[in-house]
Amino acid sequence: MTINPDEIILLQRGWFVINATILFTWLVMLLLTLGSWLVTRNLMSEGTLSRWQNLLEVLVDGIREQIREVSRQDPGPYLPFVGTLFIFIAFSNIMGIVPGFITPTSSLSTTAALAICVFIAVPVFGIARQGLLTYLRQYLEPSFFMLPFNVIGELSRTMALAVRLYGNMMSGAVIVAILLTIAPLVFPVVMQALGLLTGLIQAYIFAILAMVYIASASQAQRQLEARRRESKWKA
Amino acid sequence: MESLELIGIVSIVTAGFTIAIGSLGPALGQGRAVSQALNSIAQQPDEANTITRTLFVGLAMIESTAIYCFVVTMILIFANPFWNYLIG
């Protein structure tokens, strides 16, 4: 039993290595891109929609609605990043039910890469929205002595994001593998079904947490102003 | 006793304790969180959407502590660095 799909090496030419994680990530990317291209090739705005267009519209509209509710802002600028995170993770988790498919999210490399994307996206969105100085000032909130704790919090939540997704997906695979040796008839299927549920919830949570982090980085300005107004009002 | 045996024994026992203690706390915490959320939904059914979303995010946060313990357990059993050092 392996708890790391990075160790399954499919092709090796010198320093150039293709392992299971890379292969199945490419497969997911290919399926998603190809599917979206096929669906959006001929879009209709009236008459009966094709079922695939309907599916995509429901998906995109749902993501927009969730982003609007969480961030209380216009979802436009965040939709590409957060939506891509959600669709990629959800699709690769669901594909785990296909026999022979090794979920790329059950490798720590993939989840760490996704978490680092969030880690970089937070300051990018924050600075783009409220400027460099205002963004940096929020590390000094509520006082100067909190600076190291703010920095540590930023790093540790990135690690938590990666390990949470990896642990959930890897535990699903490990439990199924253990059950296969104990009770191979029906029970693995039940655990796989449970794995589908946890996979979707984890994808949702990853996207929502990314959105919460980005929103908190780009909302500090407004909170600061509100606090200032409040203190002025008190004085 | 051989140091290899010792490492094996300690790793397995520690793995058991890790997952046992590490799942205890999050289980209690999640139970509290869910019961509070159900109370709130019963009192304010209109806010069920917001409460459910926040509940899921909170549950994931609580659960991640259990997941950390699980990952440590898996490392101890399947990818133990000290064991691998002595074997290799």
Summary keywords:
heterodimer; A: 235 residues; two-stranded antiparallel ribbon; 7 helices; 2 strands; globular; B: 88 residues; mainly alpha; F1FO ATP Synthase
Task: Describe the 3D structure.
The complex is a heterodimer of chains A (235) and B (88). Chain A has 235 residues and is mostly helical. Chain A has one domain (5-234). Chain A has helices spanning 20-39, 51-71, 79-94, 108-130, 132-137, 147-182, 187-234, and strands spanning 9-13, 16-19. Chain A is globular and about 70 Å long. Chain B starts with a helix and ends with a helix. At the A-B interface, helix 2, helix 6 and helix 7 of A face helix 2 of B.
Measured as a percent range, the helix fraction of chain A is over 70%
Q: What is the CATH class name of chain B?
A: Mainly Alpha
Molecular shape of chain B: rod-shaped
**Strand-residue proportion of chain A:** under 5%
Helix content of chain B: over 70%
Q: Look at the structure and give the mean pLDDT of chain A.
A: 84
**What count of structural domains of chain A?**
1
Poorly predicted runs of chain A:
none
Uncertain residue segments of chain B: none
Chart the SSEs and their pairings.
The complex is a heterodimer of chains A (235) and B (88).
Chain A: E1 9-13, E2 16-19, H1 20-39, H2 51-71, H3 79-94, H4 108-130, H5 132-137, H6 147-182, H7 187-234
Antiparallel strand pairs in A: 1-2
Chain B: H1 3-43, H2 48-78, H3 81-87
Helix pairs in contact in B: 1-2
